[in-house]
Amino acid sequence: MKNGENSGADTSHGARARWVAAPAKLNLYLHVLGRREDGYHLLDTLMTFVHVGDGICVEPAENLSLTVEGPFAEGLDAGEDNLVLRAARGLAGACGVTDGARIRLVKNLPVASGIGGGSADAAATLRALCDLWRLSPPPEDMAALALGLGADVPFCLAGQAGFVGGIGESLEPAAVPPPDASGASVVWAVLINPMVALSTPAVFAAREGPFSQSSRFKDRPREASELVALLKERHNDLTQAAVSLAPEVGDVLGALEASEGCLLARMSGSGATCFGLFGDEEGARQAAAAISEAMPLWWVVATRLAADSAEVTFDGEIAAGS
Ligand code: C5P
Questions:
Q1: Is beta strand 299-306 parallel, antiparallel or unpaired with respect to 170-173?
Q2: Which atom of ligand 1 is nearest to the CA of 167?
């Protein structure tokens, strides 16, 4: 595993305080292939990161503690059940660590919104604490620990855009999003959440109709339009279910589809966050500004896609854009 590659020393909080970015994920497509006996669904999904996320800061302490701050701190339970603390306790238990840590979570992402905020936080906590506690557990142990915390945590921990299968444990890197000459994604996105929290189990339970086929591709799209052409042949199988529970999702998709320059509008994960894909920064920023003005209560962000979570930095502020 890669330890602390996103982190930076924060001397204002002690020499060993480390910030680690917890970038959001997007499901570029999501096919539901079947349902296991334990209720979990088998998926074929293509996932990527964006330059928007939460932040985790850890520093040495005798005991484990968590404080939550930031725009979406309210309403998030910082108690023992919080995924960040569960990740910390799981790592300490697996590695026989008796040290504690003071953990701060900066919650920039809406909660229960289909862009993997809680999973990103858990993965960032594992990375940060491996760095703080100087641990290098075997990758397969880390992957198992991650999966026990949530189906999206292995992807967030591995940090590479790609196809995800099983219930979230099977990872295959993919050549997306297309990079420019400097390696940065040429694809931009506008993320919108109508400020409706959707329960993932409720959305899966509301899904109707037959299961889909796996639809991985071998292509290496070179431009936003080529990626979008591939995505248009695929879909998010949870969209109808999410719309039935939260009709606002349909309004968000409509607003994105009506935006100039929007190449594709789609829901991420089990919603309610939707994204529009754009071939340039200016188009994404203009669309975000226009929608934000028309719908001031929606959470609207323009951001670049990221193939590797290590591209995404966090210094205590929301990292949106480059
Ligand atoms: O693993 P995680 O806690 O993120 O999953 C939350 C819920 O979402 C599960 O309890 C399950 O109802 C549903 N889920 C699923 N199939 C997946 C991932 C999640 O049915 N592959």
A1: unpaired
A2: 21
CA angle in degrees (0–180, nearest 5) for 109-111-113: 90
Ligand 1 center from residue 61 Cα (angstroms): 33
180 is an active site residue: no
User: First-to-last CA distance in the chain?
Assistant: 25
Domains, the chain, in order of start with CATH, read 4-172 (3.30.230.10), 174-310 (3.30.70.890)
CB 32 within 8 A of CB 200: no
> Residue 299 half-sphere exposure, CB side, CA atoms within 13 Å?
22
Per-residue pLDDT of 152-209, as tens digits, reads 999 999 999 999 999 999 999 999 999 999 999 999 999 999 999 999 999 999 999 9
- What DSSP assignment string belongs to 179-222? B-TTS-BS-EEEEEE-S----HHHHHHH--SPPPPP--------
Q: Which of 30, 35, 38, 40 to mutate to test the pocket of ligand 1 (most atoms within 8 A of CB)?
A: 40
228, 264 in Cβ contact below 8 A? yes
Q: Is the pTM of this model over 0.90?
A: yes
Catalytic residue check, 152: yes
Using DSSP, state whether 277 is helix, strand or coil.
Answer: strand
Q: Measuring CA to CA, how many Å separate 18 from each of 29, 58, 83, 87, 316?
A: 34, 5, 19, 17, 11
Token readout for 22 is 């917890």
d(CA 175, CA 112): 28
Give SS3 for 42.
strand
Maximum Cα–Cα distance across the chain = 55
- What is the rounded CA–CA span in Å between residue 291 and residue 155? 31
